[in-house]
Automatic annotation (TrEMBL):
The keyword Cytoplasm applies. Keywords: Cytoplasm, Elongation factor, GTP-binding, Nucleotide-binding, Phosphoprotein, Protein biosynthesis. This is Elongation factor 1-alpha. This protein promotes the GTP-dependent binding of aminoacyl-tRNA to the A-site of ribosomes during protein biosynthesis. It is found in: Cytoplasm. PROSITE patterns: G_TR_1, G_TR_2. One of its GO terms (molecular function) is translation elongation factor activity. NCBIfam families: EF-1_alpha, PRK12317.1. It comes from Scopula trisinuata.
Amino acid sequence: YKCGGIDKRTIEKFEKEAQEMGKGSFKYAWVLDKLKAERERGITIDIALWKFETAKYYVTIIDAPGHRDFIKNMITGTSQADCAVLIVAAGTGEFEAGISKNGQTREHALLAFTLGVKQLIVGVNKMDSTEPPYSEPRFEEIKKEVSSYIKKIGYNPAAVAFVPISGWHGDNMLEASTKMPWFKGWQVERKEGKAEGKCLIEALDAILPPARPTDKPLRLPLQDVYKIGGIGTVPVGRVETGVLKPGTIVVFAPANITTEVKSVEMHHEALQEAVPGDNVGFNVKNVSVKELRRGYVAGDSKNNPPRGAADFTAQVIVLNHPGQISNGYTPVLDCHTAHIACKFAEIKEKVDRRTGKSTEENPKSIKSGDAAIVNLVPSKPLCVESFQEFPPLGRFAVR
């Protein structure tokens, strides 16, 4: 709201409604949920529900909710992000629950890294409800614990900003808080240089824009497909590689449907071209909503178009799995925006996680901590690509 993402009238209306429903303490979460419901009725061609501007960037929030049943959406959202903001709760017992073996904090950080989101910011939230409030030792304890965990995953803690905040009271969100005089600010060190600041918004400004692969063939995984009155069929998703323009003859894999792009739109404005990183809606001719679905991938029919794979070989790292995994195991794979059951047809070899060197041929089974080369067979065609050529389409998570 303070960043201009929501107007004053709207927030006041929601505050009043939240109060009436006895959800006063819930007003901000309520705002986002209400907005979502209201927007769904008058659907806008827009996957990102909230945007705001900082001094440097337009920021699009891809809300990736925290409950376990949301993990599928979290994977869809996360696979489109440039940076993850991990919010951990500092309240007594709350942090411990999140970081415990079956808590969400670990799973989210791990998924973010696995899905290629290499930049991370950690917001230590609810600092107002520590014992005593705004406790420095509590912040340091959490910072130490989270650092050690994210380091195991693959993040470099020195490159991660840890910011003590209270979203509810606004501490260290947009301006430095007077409640935590002990906090001298966050610092990060990366090969591109150092950055420092006091609040969360400055940490967002310190995000490094990733290189955008415009020179590669077009790949655009569909997040959703809308039918919009007076316009027609509008697939929505993020350009991962290449460029999408009006007039492009696109093909949707794996269904192999070809059509012309009439218009491309982002943030309610028509675009002459969409480049990697852009979340866009585009209008296509003569294709019904029923023919397209989330997980399909759009490409340029004339330039190395995407295709469905009947089977593929992948390196798989088992993070935590009860018991052993052997040939025939068929979990759901989340790859870009697709969610499809895939069979472990053949575990070809175990490899060393760090070097990739083979350590055992045709193992009977693999378990937590192992890495292996596996031949996978999707239950229906899935559009995957080699990690070398198209990283966003060559990564997946198995649940």
